[in-house]
Design a protein that fits this description.
single chain; about 450 residues; alpha+beta; Alpha-Beta Plaits; Chitinase A, domain 3; 5-stranded antiparallel beta sheet; 4-stranded antiparallel beta sheet; 14 helices; about 50% helix; elongated; Trig_fac; Trigger_fac_ribosome-bd_sf
């Protein structure tokens, strides 16, 4: 077998593959003998079919299969050996007058070549944001933690924020009790439409109200009373509540026991450290958002400013021939246009990886897996798992091919981000989280506006 490459231009080439009869003769003969031995053909005893008959029936299709196999492996090996970067797959040029009996078979394949270009990240400019967590925000977190880890206390009287345990009875239009309607419920005072009817009442007091006074919103009322929509809509009577118990959630004091509950025993020494840790954790959470935004900006700038041509005609033909859903060249051209940005970015990403020597080694994926699993275990309160147990879980995760690929992609994305951070000219702006959200919404609007213009 012989393969030669002819360049048409920078983006297109043709491979000519010549296959000699000797390249496949032996394999074809072997396959024919197998057929002869095993073929069950009417009128012949097994293994007694004349070779001429077998040849006539099967030789052509066997040659076709063997040649195809040779072409596939030969072309793949050639492309790898010659380090040719191609887009799509080699496209066979059809030859209707192929003489399959000839001593020499010749095939041509079109190639769409990846463009040659350079990427210099130091020429790219992008905005990046640092979200500052204000003292007010830290206070909100502190209040939430105090509430979450608070305790129940019993109250003398109903006040705002109280939970009231009641026994409810339904009354008809004459304020008479409807038999069999008694049930116990909890009412949260702040949800009531008319909280004043309850505020100041004590255990043993009775309150009579219309259903609407519990809550004017029908859906909320259904939930509070555990009624269905039909009952809520049709209920004409009143509701009588006897107060059984009054409680409220009392916020935990901001002290060592709260710090221990939130961050684990002994990891925070005093309130200043507690507030600082809240601030750091919140900023870390926001960093993920700002990193995402920075990535998007850099990617957009790279797609816009990195100029290169694509073998578009080839890609249109390739998509048309290889995708059953694409019925015409026009449709293929539209699809390629839709894919163009992501195709350009794939090429740019590969070029960045090559230029800045970004490789994902097995050890990187192993390390990332270990960190993720440690984090997950810490969330379930198992921070001090023995080393060998941790290793067992890590190696188990890495055995799963899909999971491994997902983690490798994640490691690559992180390395790409670090490369952007160290090489792109980033203009960092300090903002509050609300300002950041507003900025992102404006960018989103501008973006969709641009898209509308471009269509």
């Amino acid at each position: 077998m012989n393969i030669t490459q002819n360049s048409i231009d920078n983006l297109n080439a043709v491979l000519t593959v010549t296959i000699e009869k000797d390249d496949y003769k032996e394999k074809v003969e072997k396959a024919l003998n197998n057929y002869r031995k095993n073929a069950a053909i009417k009128g012949f005893r097994k293994g007694q079919v004349p070779m001429s008959f077998v040849k006539k029936q099967f030789e052509k299709s066997i040659i076709f299969d063997e040649v195809n196999q040779l072409l596939q492996t030969g072309i793949n090996e050639y492309i790898q050996k010659e380090k040719i970067s191609i887009l799509g797959n080699p496209l066979p040029k059809f030859n209707e007058n192929m003489d399959w009996d000839a001593d020499q078979l010749e095939f041509e394949f079109e190639l769409g070549l990846a463009p040659d270009f350079k990427v210099d990240l130091s020429k790219v400019k992008a905005d990046t944001y640092k979200v500052n967590v204000t003292d007010e925000e830290v206070q909100k977190y502190v209040d939430n933690f105090a509430k979450r880890f608070g305790s129940m206390k019993t109250l003398e009287k109903v006040e705002e924020g109280a939970n009231v345990k009641v026994t409810m009875k339904e009354l008809d239009a004459d304020k008479k009790e409807i038999e069999g309607t008694e049930k116990d419920l909890f009412l949260f005072v702040d949800e009531l439409s008319k909280p004043k009817k309850f505020i100041g009442k004590k255990v043993g007091d009775v309150v009579v109200v219309k259903a609407k006074e519990i809550n004017e919103d029908a859906v909320t009322l259904e939930q509070i009373l555990s009624w269905d929509a039909g009952k809520v809509a049709g209920f004409e009577g009143q509701l009588q509540f006897e107060i059984k118990e009054i409680t409220a959630m009392e916020a935990s004091p901001v002290d060592q026991s709260l710090f221990d509950k939130v961050y684990g025993e002994g990891s925070v020494a005093d309130e200043a450290e507690f507030r600082n840790k809240i601030k750091t954790e919140a900023e870390k959470m926001y960093d993920r958002e700002t990193d995402k935004q920075m990535m998007n900006e850099v990617v957009e700038a790279l797609i816009k400013d990195t100029k290169f041509d694509l073998p578009t005609d080839f890609l249109n033909r390739w998509l048309h021939q290889t995708n059953d859903k694409v019925e015409s060249l026009e449709q293929a051209a539209e699809e390629v246009k839709k894919m163009e940005d992501s195709l350009r970015y794939q090429l740019i990403e590969a070029k960045v990886a090559e230029t800045y020597d970004l490789k994902v080694e097995f050890a990187d994926v192993e390390e990332a897996t270990r960190n993720i699993i440690k984090e997950q275990l810490a969330m379930y309160g198992q921070a001090n798992i023995p080393e060998e147990d941790l290793e067992r879980i890590v190696q188990g995760s890495l055995q799963n091919q899909q999971e491994f690929q997902r983690l490798a992609d994640q490691v690559f994305a992180t390395k790409m981000m670090e490369t952007f951070k160290s090489n792109v000219k980033l203009n960092e702006k300090s903002v509050t989280f609300d300002e950041f959200v507003k900025l992102m919404e404006e960018k989103q609007k501008a973006h969709s506006h641009d898209h509308d213009h471009n269509h």
